[in-house]
UniProtKB/TrEMBL annotation:
It holds the Pfam family Abhydrolase_3. Residues 75-289 form the Alpha/beta hydrolase fold-3 domain. Belongs to the 'GDXG' lipolytic enzyme family. This is Alpha/beta hydrolase fold-3 domain-containing protein.
């Protein structure tokens, strides 16, 4: 076979393909929209460089009614996409974050961490940690003028939920000066494990189970198995040190990952962690439904719940 063969080496349809000649073909999540003032929500956004030397950046969102005399909670958000697609600058996440920021009345930092396989895990975790420290260090005018860094929240969907959990674990273990992480919300988080649980054994989810089994070692070549603590919190002996006092989990009734969300709630509840955790299942909904349809009935209901979670 010629060295420049375009034969497939890895096929992660519908997300990504890798060819034997090294070409990486992303099949989704590559569209870019510039920051803007959104007419539907009155939310404004801008892009910032966090570490130009490694191409780490973010998009910051400011609600239309922001007032310098009334500081708002600070939300640091991590997008989904299986660690291999999507960005903080895609139309999908621009629309989603506009709705979240408008409803919750927060200043949000959507982190554009680097993607596998070019930058395999744990690089996404390290990027996200660096971005969180940047956001809480007073490096941006909007954050300084409008955000209360003492009311810090993390959020993420799918793989971004995995990142949010791991960042919260790092806050708990390192207890960095100046951090007051109030809570974390996980939207259909991507947790996994060696042994299937619940509906993961059903035939209708066979494709996605096999997909996830292949994806993890692809995104993280140094992974030993699917029970490593970063992807299976149930195997983490230190999970009780999660660095916040409340967690909100959302799962879709038709999502193959829903069992992992419920399992995460059970693990936290039994771990000795000194906090409150709630898991909400929305019947009939697919994976990260509120990201795809933030202005739909169930999407908006979820976003309103997240807003209450942040502001209560």
């Amino acid at each position: 076979m010629a060295a420049n063969s375009d034969e497939l080496l890895h096929d992660f349809l519908p997300m990504l393909r890798v060819h034997k000649n090294g070409r990486i073909e992303r099949l989704a999540g590559t569209d870019f929209v510039p920051p803007s003032l959104d007419p539907a929500t009155a939310v404004n956004s801008k892009d910032v460089e966090i570490s130009p030397e490694i191409n780490l950046s973010a998009r910051i969102y400011l609600p239309g009614n922001a007032d310098r005399s009334k500081k708002l909670p600070l939300l640091v958000y991590f997008h989904g996409g299986g660690f291999i697609i999507e960005s903080a600058f895609s139309p999908l996440y621009q629309k989603h974050l506009n709705h979240v920021v408008a409803e919750a009345n927060v200043v949000a930092v959507s982190v554009n961490y680097r993607l596998a396989p070019e930058f395999p895990l744990p690089i996404a975790f390290e990027d996200s940690w660096r971005a969180l420290k940047w956001a809480t260090a007073g490096n941006d005018e909007w954050i300084n003028e409008f955000a209360d860094r003492n009311r810090l929240y993390l959020g993420g969907d799918s793989a971004g939920g995995t990142i949010a959990h791991n960042i919260a674990m790092r806050v708990g273990s390192e207890n960095p000066v100046g951090f007051n992480l109030r809570g974390v919300f996980l939207n259909c988080p991507f947790f996994w494990g060696v042994d299937p649980i619940g509906c993961e054994t059903e035939e209708q989810f066979k494709f996605w189970k096999e997909f996830s089994d292949r994806l993890l070692p692809f995104a993280c070549p140094i992974v030993s198995n699917h029970d490593e603590p970063w992807i299976n919190p149930g195997k983490d002996l230190n999970v009780s040190s999660l660095g916040c006092k409340k967690v909100l989990i959302y799962v879709g009734g038709k999502d193959f990952l829903k069992e992992r969300g419920w399992y995460y709630k059970e693990v936290l509840s039994k771990s000795g962690w000194n906090g409150e955790v709630e898991c909400v299942e929305i019947a009939g909904e697919e994976h990260v439904f509120s990201v795809f349809f933030p202005d739909g009935e169930t999407g908006m209901a979820m976003i309103k719940k997240v807003a209450s979670f942040i502001n209560e």
